[in-house]
Amino acid sequence: MNFRRSLVFTMILLLLVILPGVAMAGEGPTADSNAVAIDTVWTLVAAFLVFFMQAGFAMVEAGFTRAKNAGNIIMKNLMDLSVGSLLFWFIGYGIMFGSDYFGLFGTDGFLVINSGEDLTFWAFLIFQTVFCATAATIVSGAMAERTKFIAYLLYSIGISAIIYPIVGHWIWGGGWLSELGFKDFAGSTVVHSVGGWAGLIGATILGARIGKYGKDGSVNAIPGHSITLGALGVFILWFGWFGFNPGSTVAGTDLSIGLIAVNTNLSAAAGAVTAMITSWIRYGKPDVSLTLNGALAGLVGITAGCAFVDPLGAVVIGLLSGIVLIIAVEIIDKKLKVDDPVGAVAVHGACGALGTVLVGLLDVEQGLLYGGGMSLLLVQLLGVIAVFLWTIGTSYILFKVIDATVGLRVAPQEEESGLDIHEHSLEAYGDFVLKTPSPNVH
User: Fold this and answer.
1) Which of 103, 213, 341, 360 is the most exposed place for a label (fewest CB within 10 A)?
2) What secondary structure does DSSP assign to 392-429, as a single string?
3) How far is CA 107 from the centre of its chain?
4) pLDDT given for residue 432 in this prediction
5) Which portions of the chain are predicted below pLDDT 50?
6) What is the chain's mean pLDDT, rounded?
7) What is the rounded distance in angstroms from the CA atom of residue 249 to the CA atom of residue 247?
């Protein structure tokens, strides 16, 4: 009996000692820990949406080009994501977000394998990685149907490791433009203009596709093989942009994500509408491919100011982007004689620059039209010009070096037969008889 009493007494004492500790260890999450979890999950979901945009780019580029090059387009989009992911982790992230060196580039954070106690770092890293891949893949469309695959791989290395991260540091990593107050919330300039301007230089050095321009200077349209694939790509990109722009808060607890999403959607819709109307007026019929690109133009245009403008400003940016798209396509195609099969330079270069500058007018706190004066507008102009000069300068050097070593362009007979056969020994549509459409003069 005494033994039983002693045992019961001992168990009660143990419970009195252990239970409070268990209760303390099992306390529910605090408000701060909830916020961190929400922000991390939000950033990851946004990163996954931006990752899915690679499929959108692949479909747009494949649909707007000829069937004989579809496999090559898919391979390029796959590999700029793969190569870009490795290089951004290895060196690009450090250059972009490392300790600042005179406002120019970062000096640490390379080859990160341990984040210490900050586990949220990994969500931020994957988010920034897929942004880098977006910048690289834009160039693929501008240089489609006549670029050597090895040359494209080498270019992807250059933009992912050096060109894009340095611009990113200037604006997002604490560099000289951010110190001046330059505003580019989600990357109209950092991501899209970098890809667009690099594509402009690449397409210029590469030269036009065979049959694009007549000896008399006439411009021959070379239709893509599937407007359906192109449209699917645009819808995927539009969807992914809800990760691109709202996700750039990297905070699900930041309730501005709702306004950013609305602004993103309104600008895309306005861009599509004005591109349709403008093409209808100029060419007699509403052009499907230009209308699709109009939606993308509106998305690119609003990316810089999506968190800084009100819905009316977003609509204005989209309307202007749709019009500027048509004008830019005509200038690039007919005046400059630069062959851009998918309109990447007009969409990402021209409309990215436009949207960034318009922040200086339409920012609800600092914009000129809202009583903020000229200071922000001047900073925005300076940033756009600086990034343009940096990108065309470094891209020119990069493409010239590649051309002088491995060569940029495939042989004429390879271009005529298609890059799928000569670069990859396959046919994207193996069970179909492909008919290459003859260029149409207009």
Assistant:
1) 103
2) HHHHHHHHHHHHHHT-SB--HHHHHH-HHHHHHS--TT
3) 24
4) 72
5) 7-8, 13-26, 438, 440-442
6) 92
7) 5
Q: What is the pLDDT of residue 52?
A: 97
Contacts of 271 (CB under 8 A, 6+ apart): 294, 295, 296, 297, 298, 299, 301, 318, 319, 321, 322, 325
How much is the pLDDT for 4?
A: 56
Contact (CB, 8 A) for 333 and 217: no
Using CB atoms within 10 A of its CB, is residue 118 exposed (0-12), middle (13-18) or buried (19+)?
Answer: exposed
368/377 Cα distance (integer angstroms)? 7
pTM of the model: 0.90
Q: How long is the chain?
A: 442
Q: How many CB atoms lie within 10 A of CB 235?
A: 13
Q: Among all chains, which residue has been given the structure tokens 């880098």?
A: 132
Q: What per-residue confidence (pLDDT) applies to 29?
A: 59
| Backbone dihedral region for residue 13 (phi beyond 0: left; psi -120 to 50: alpha; all else: beta) | alpha
Q: Are 341 and 222 in contact (CB under 8 A)?
A: yes
Residue with tokens 């007919």: 334
For residues 425 and 427, what is the distance between their CA atoms, to the nearest angstrom? 7
